[in-house]
Amino acid sequence: MTTPSPPTKHATSAIGVKAIDHVTIVVHDLSRSRDFYRDLLGMEEVERPDFGFPGHWLQAGATQVHLIETMEGTSEPGGGLDPDRVTSGLTHHFAFEVEDAIRAHRILESAGVRIQGGPRKRPDGCMQLWFYDPDGHCVEVFDRTGSAASH
């Protein structure tokens, strides 16, 4: 069995990413998606600057989820979106760490969310499960404590 080498610093060849700041999700119904992420997943809605198009920002730890609707415009960075080129559901999945994945499973099921997979324990001991948000984005929640052992 080999021990993985520690990551090397590429000071001159890498731009030096420090963290993921936000993920922008294209949705069909802003209110429905905001309610899902805020009310069901428990994210805090935070102030969003006026970009000239509708959206919501939600805080999840040090990372934000930005919700925007499919709309007319351009696909230029910082601009609007071309609805013929950008639609919802383009990600494979994204994951949120929670305190207790088994508790999250119960809450999601009681809210009528269809669980796509899990809960199951990963080889590293984390407990995980997957479900879809209202626009078909696959969402994973996991805990690092392997909550099944405590339930």
Give a written overview of the molecule.
- With 151 residues, this protein is α/β, with parallel strands linked by helices.
- The chain folds into 2 domains: 18-88, 2,3-Dihydroxybiphenyl 1,2-Dioxygenase, domain 1; 91-151, 2,3-Dihydroxybiphenyl 1,2-Dioxygenase, domain 1, CATH 3.10.180.
- The longest helix is centred in the first third of the chain and has 11 residues, at 30-40.
- It has a 4-stranded mixed β-sheet, covered by helices on one side. The chain has a 4-stranded mixed β-sheet with strand order 5-8-7-6, covered by helices on one side.
- It has helices spanning 30-40, 101-110, and strands at residues 22-27, 44-46, 55-60, 63-69, 94-97, 115-121, 127-132, 138-143.
Characteristics:
2,3-Dihydroxybiphenyl 1,2-Dioxygenase, domain 1, four-stranded mixed beta sheet, 2 domains, alpha/beta, 30% strand
Task: Give the structure's gist in a few sentences.
Keywords: Metal-binding. The protein has 151 residues and is α/β, with parallel strands linked by helices.
Per-chain topology:
Blueprint: E1 22-27, H1 30-40, E2 44-46, E3 55-60, E4 63-69, E5 94-97, H2 101-110, E6 115-121, E7 127-132, E8 138-143
Parallel strand pairs: 1-4, 5-8
Antiparallel strand pairs: 2-3, 3-4, 6-7, 7-8
Shape: globular
> Which structural category fits the helices and strands?
alpha/beta
Report the major sheet: 4 strands, mixed
CATH class of the largest domain: Alpha Beta
CATH superfamily of the largest domain: 2,3-Dihydroxybiphenyl 1,2-Dioxygenase, domain 1
Radius of gyration, in Å, reads: 18 Å
Output the CATH topology of the largest domain: 2,3-Dihydroxybiphenyl 1,2-Dioxygenase, domain 1
Pfam family, one: Glyoxalase
Protein name: Fosfomycin resistance protein FosB
Organism: Stieleria maiorica
GO molecular function: lactoylglutathione lyase activity; metal ion binding
